[in-house]
Amino acid sequence: MSSENEIILSTSGLTKNFGGLVAVSDISIDIERGSVKAIIGPNGSGKTTFFNLITGTFPPTTGKIFFEGRDITRYSMYQRTRAGISRSYQITNIFPYQTTFENIRLAVQGCSGAKVNFFGILKKASTFDNFHEKVIDIATIVGLDPARLYVPAALIPHAEQRKLEIAMALATEPKLLLLDEPAAGMSIEEIPEVIDSILRVKESYGDQLTLLVVEHKMDIVMKLSEEIIVLSEGKIIAKGPPKEIQQNEQVLTAYLGGTDEELA
Ligand SMILES: Nc1ncnc2c1ncn2[C@@H]1O[C@H](COP(=O)(O)OP(=O)(O)OP(=O)(O)O)[C@@H](O)[C@H]1O
Ligand SMILES: [Mg+2]
């Protein structure tokens, strides 16, 4: 947990309507710098939409978003990345035919403003060295298998692919990282590997990094987060330490009838 209670991200009355559907409804929340929080909620409760609003995929219908005290509500996605917000996606978002290394390098390079020439060769060898070192650093932090760094990303195991996505999200040197279901589609045996990876990332960056993780699987949430935010029908219905949330009646009711049995 952060030593100070400085707020890095704050939303005020954040709302997103899709036609008549209110996907995110009047969310006002403060996130402390350096904290790790999980967002849970039944399918369609607005978790990904909330992330999309923070990262600027689309503007909110109403409400505001503040990052480090600045109103970023009208910032483009690019401006938000520059400000220090990054994310991974619920659905795998890697270049399958590029190697693991190349995927990270492209992400690092993409945010550095470096120029490549017509043949895709970087103009300065020294710049290449910097990229190389940074890619290896990030790969090590997320725990990617060094033996698989030069294999096309499509051919590495699913858990490694999810770690690769976290690595790519880290390439922009974010202060706030949003992970949307980092263990989606993973087998039970693969899950601890991804949890370890996220814990290692958090440990490496300490209070420099704030983490928001959307996750359904309660065992992951329990291991990762200090606080859980529960969404239902676009609204925050509960917020608190994992142990408390697990026994919260309103939360259990929101999950009843759904496909999620993790809370039971
Ligand atoms: N771009 C969009 N256009 C129209 N409706 C959308 C759009 N994105 C999301 N929705 C709707 O908004 C609601 C919230 O969706 P969202 O994807 O945020 O939920 P979620 O909590 O992430 O669900 P899941 O657990 O299934 O990933 C859903 O009813 C969804 O169909
Ligand atoms: Mg989602």
Describe the structure.
- The structure is a single chain.
- This protein is of the alpha/beta class and 264 residues long.
- The protein has a single domain, classed as P-loop containing nucleotide triphosphate hydrolases (Rossmann fold, 3-Layer(aba) Sandwich).
- Helix content is 35%, strand content 24%.
- It has 9 helices and 10 strands.
- The strands form 2 sheets. Strands 6-7-8-3-9-10 form a 6-stranded mixed sheet, sandwiched between helices. It has a 4-stranded antiparallel sheet with strand order 2-1-4-5, with helices on one face.
- The site of adenosine-5'-triphosphate (ATP) has 12 residues, from strand 2 and helix 1.
Structure in a nutshell:
This protein has helices at residues 47-55, 77-83, 100-110, 125-142, 158-170, 191-205, 218-224, 242-246, 249-255, and strands at 7-18, 21-32, 36-40, 62-67, 70-71, 85-88, 176-180, 210-214, 227-232, 235-240. With 264 residues, the chain is α/β, with parallel strands linked by helices. α4 (125-142) crosses α5 (158-170).
SSE topology sketch:
Elements: E1 7-18, E2 21-32, E3 36-40, H1 47-55, E4 62-67, E5 70-71, H2 77-83, E6 85-88, H3 100-110, H4 125-142, H5 158-170, E7 176-180, H6 191-205, E8 210-214, H7 218-224, E9 227-232, E10 235-240, H8 242-246, H9 249-255
Parallel strand pairs: 3-8, 3-9, 6-7, 7-8
Antiparallel strand pairs: 1-2, 1-4, 4-5, 9-10
Helix pairs in contact: 3-4, 3-5, 4-5, 5-6
Features:
6-stranded mixed sheet, binds magnesium ion, 4-stranded antiparallel sheet, alpha/beta, 264 residues, Rossmann fold, binds adenosine-5'-triphosphate
